[in-house]
Amino acid sequence: MFGLGVPELAVIGLIIFVLFGGKKIPELMQGLGKGIKEFKKASKDVQDDLQKSIDDEPLKKIGEK
């Protein structure tokens, strides 16, 4: 993962634990999870709107003639 090994990830995890404490980490992860979920939802909505526009385009051209 990004060229990081287990020792590097362990050090990063330890630093996060020291900085935020054991009680704040679950709250941070929950917020991160919600943010990722909202991002994926917004991305899917944009893709759906774009696909709908592409699908509707031929119908508009037929109706104009």
Topology of this structure?
Layout: H1 6-64
Terminal CA distance reads 55 Å
Low-confidence stretches: none
**What's the alpha carbon Rg, rounded to whole Å?**
22 Å
Number of helices: 1
Classification by helices and strands: mainly alpha
Mean pLDDT: 84
Basic shape: elongated
Quick overview:
With 65 residues, this protein is mainly alpha-helical. It has one helix spanning 6-64.
Provide a descriptive summary of the structure in words.
- The protein is an all-alpha fold.
- It has 1 helix and no strands.
- It has one helix at 6-64.
- The longest helix has 59 residues, at 6-64.
- The termini are far apart.
List keywords for this structure.
single chain; 65 residues; 91% helix
